[in-house]
Write a structure and sequence with these properties.
Blueprint: H1 2-30, H2 32-56, H3 67-120, H4 126-141, H5 143-159, H6 161-183, H7 189-231, H8 236-246, H9 252-267, H10 273-299, H11 307-341, H12 347-353
Helix pairs in contact: 2-3, 2-6, 2-7, 2-11, 3-4, 3-5, 3-9, 7-8, 7-10, 7-11, 8-9, 9-10, 11-12
């Protein structure tokens, strides 16, 4: 009987957990118009707080500045970056989408000529020629829908920029009050200390991931912009922005961010195979240098996700929130895993989500 009761309890717990997950997924889908700007604002708030702490610890005048002034400087810096993104988007996206049919037509001609040359030299068996042509048409035909999705996401971002900025401002204002309210939930001083240290550790780890990932992506974007400008590839500013944004999506994002300017360099009037090859090699080199060499040293293995979890996260969040969900999928999933590492009850789930099982230690002291 006890075993049956225990089994019933376990089954009931699993049932309620699954039901809660479905409910949260439904709410995330229905409220995506509100939640997506709020999540973006939350990550931006982490960046602002990190920048504020950096300014505050400055060696010359930082320690003499009040917190509100440090917050103002940090907010102004992040807001300037947001406005720069908006300016790049407005100056490039619409023009790129309007000229896309011309580039697509030239790309179709180039790929058709390449396939014809391959077939003429007998490099492809006759029974596979039709399949190769279908693949070519499908690959070229993907360009316009992808650009349309990117344009829609960019327009949504620019339309919500005011909402995002307001969310950021109120999140920063309410930060101290929320922490004080959480502290008031328990009258036990020891439990208060544990809660405070746990929240502090989680916040520090999430800030580390978001800050380092953003810095790495920014370096890739700057390097990519310089490369594209040097090579003379059209819309260099937009492709650099795409490198920054899409590198938040593992593997798939980097492939799209590198393939898009490479194909454009092949199809632009003064482009060609040599320019496309240089673009591909140099962009791939800088992306691999930062993502495979620099980033793991800065973030560490404890924040890595299992490839299966990455695919599931991209599929789930992409289904719920579309292209914006794919961009936010990995930061959200990493944040969830970081939170789970700090609680004994959820550490097994965090271990399963991780790449090697080597996750961060519980930093809060055990309750005595």
């Amino acid at each position: 009987m006890p075993g049956a009761a225990g089994g019933f309890g376990g089954e009931a717990r699993a049932f309620f957990t699954l039901g809660l997950a479905v409910l949260l997924g439904y709410l995330a889908f229905v409220g995506r118009g509100i939640l997506i700007p709020a999540v973006i604002a939350g990550f931006a708030s982490f960046l602002i707080y990190t920048l504020k702490e950096t300014i505050k610890s400055g060696p010359i005048v930082g320690r003499f500045l009040p917190d509100w002034l440090c917050y103002l400087f940090a907010f102004a810096a992040i807001a300037s970056i947001f406005l720069f993104f908006v300016d790049v988007i407005r100056g490039n996206v619409e023009k790129l989408i309007s000229e896309a049919p011309l580039y697509e037509s030239r790309l179709r001609d180039l790929t058709r000529s390449a396939v014809s040359a391959i077939e003429a030299h007998g490099l492809v068996p006759a029974d596979l020629a039709g399949a190769v042509e279908e693949v070519r048409q499908a690959a070229v035909g993907m360009a316009q829908p992808v650009l349309a999705q990117l344009g829609a996401a960019a327009r949504t971002f620019t339309a919500n920029i005011v909402t995002i900025v307001l969310y950021i401002a109120f999140m920063l204002v309410e930060r101290g009050r929320i922490l004080r309210k959480i502290d008031m939930l328990s009258a036990n001083p020891a439990r208060k200390r544990i809660v405070d240290e746990t929240l502090g550790d989680i916040g520090a780890m999430v800030r580390e991931y978001i800050t380092v990932k953003s810095a790495v992506n920014l370096c890739v974007a700057i390097g990519g912009y310089l490369i594209l400008r040097f090579l003379g590839v059209d819309f260099a500013g937009f492709w650099a922005l795409l490198l920054f944004v899409l590198n938040f999506i593992p593997i798939i994002g980097a492939v799209i961010a590198i393939a898009a300017p490479t194909l454009l360099s092949l199809a632009q009037p003064d482009g060609g195979l040599r320019l496309a090859a240089l673009t591909l090699v140099l962009l791939f080199a800088i992306e691999q240098l930062m993502s495979s060499v620099i980033e793991p040293r800065l973030i560490g293995k404890s924040l890595n996700l299992s490839p299966l979890v990455v695919l599931l996260a991209l599929a789930i969040w992409g289904t719920l929130w579309g292209f914006a969900g794919m961009l936010l999928a990995i930061p959200i999933t990493v944040t969830i895993m970081i939170v789970m590492t700090q609680f004994e009850a959820t550490r097994p789930v965090a271990i399963l989500m991780s790449d090697s099982g080597d996750i961060a230690a519980v930093k809060r002291p055990a309750a005595a």
